[in-house]
Design a protein that fits this description.
- The chain is mainly alpha-helical.
- The chain has 19 helices and 5 strands.
- The protein has helices at residues 16-29, 47-61, 78-91, 97-111, 117-123, 126-129, 148-161, 186-206, 217-224, 245-251, 257-274, 282-300, 327-347, 365-396, 400-411, 418-421, 447-474, 487-500, 509-516; strands at 36-40, 66-71, 132-137, 165-170, 209-212.
- A 5-stranded parallel sheet has the order 2-3-4-1-5, with helices on both faces.
- α7 (148-161) links the parallel β3 (132-137) and β4 (165-170).
- α1 (16-29) crosses α2 (47-61) and α13 (327-347) runs antiparallel to α14.
- The longest helix is centred in the C-terminal third of the chain and has 32 residues, at 365-396.
- The protein is elongated and about 95 Å long.
Length: 517
Amino acid sequence: MSNNGIDFADFIFINRNECKKKIEEIFKENKDKSIAIAINGKWGVGKSYFWKNEMTPFLKKELDITPIYTSVFGKKDENEIIKDLVSQFLTIENKNADNIRDFIEGTFKFFGKNIDMDSLFKFFKKEHMKNTIVCIDDFERLSDKIPVQDVLGLISELKENKECSVVVIYNEDELFKNDNFNQENNKDKSKITKEKMIFEKYKEKVFDFQIKFAPSSIEQFSIFMSEKLEKNFDAYKYFPDIINIDKLLQTHNFTNLRELNRVNCTYQTLLKDFSLEKYPSEEFKNIYNYILYPIAYAYHFGLKPEYFEKNNIKGTTNLSSPHTSIYSNLLKELLSYLKDGFEIMQKTSFLYIPQLFPNPNGYTPIQECKIFLLNFVKKIIDDTNFHMEYIKELNDKTSLEEASICFFLKHKNDIKSIPYMFGYRILNYAFNDEDSIELKRTKSFALELVIKKHEKEVLDLFNQWCNKAHEVIINNKNEQEYFWINKFTFYLPLESLSKKLNIPIPQNKLVELFIKN
């Protein structure tokens, strides 16, 4: 604890491997004596999951120690806790099991089966319980009817008199939390305060070791990561905020396994409904399946809420800047299709039936989303491919201007390259994420540098592309590569670009269509 009252331990992440390694080390170093360990961590981070699925198998196999588990949650008194422990001892499989069962049967014959579990437990000898670890879980949920000193006494009894090691799992933040409540009932409040004081007083005496269990959000995410979340595609490193799960995990520390599992359920539901029968390529499949997860993650945890607000398209893209893209406006359009679906899933436990609500064009929301997402991914791939080719030019040339001009001259007959060169890109390809701040330089095609020497040729090519796009759009075939064209993503950025570069706005059928409207 620092002088200003901040406990810096709260800001330290201790992953599963570190925690497991420490516990292994403790038990190996104390193999000839019984010990008590407290494992403290926030609700939902998977403390119980960690103990049952990672520590228990290790202790059985590697250290030949028999783990026994009980939870105090729902237990009305100490006798119920002991009763559960005794029943666990009756079912364990180790070298002491037969001796324990023979001992209990003999005790029943001598005292009768009406003997209470507390008395039976007291007859347990060291040789019955030695080489055993008792895990007491959910300690913060201990009933206020059970005095905390009784449970601390039980832990000490197990450790000191039964030679049985003990692991207690709890969330210290939630221990005796009722201290903050029951203000109207001073008697209850003073009782709770006393319980907390007792725990704090004897904690150091009872527990030989206290371990913080605090895995990072990235580690927690990996537990539920779907096998379909492949990141091995070229565009991944250019994915911004809401569609890059690594960036979301680094920025927002959500570690609750139950919440992450709900995100996974949402993703699996989306994947089931939006999967395509046939994918154009493996790269396309990876991107298409991947995009849905970070979107579900962002919605579930309330990240970037502005993206999920309908009819909230504001601002335009600065086409002359290498650091901007049409991504934001397009993503908002995509998420407008998904918003209702997310709400339905939340309210109906993942019963997602938006196909019951077709739009005026006859498409269901799922069909609308699949069409949009399909074209969204196609453009990402096209843009990325052009960018990768441009990077090769940039690496071979001495200047950004030379690289941009060479790229333009090489691709001027490929009409599909025009949107990329005019800045109509979904992603920001300005530089690579792995570049250090000192080494970062512009790594995107610069139209401004090309247009100074090839203005007429550039504008002629752009007009050709616009006329072709216009033909598709007016024939209501806007389900192909021109899906992204609208006032905010096409016309307004173009108008702004012409003013900034001091060139006339291109005159073609597509531009005229937006001027009229």
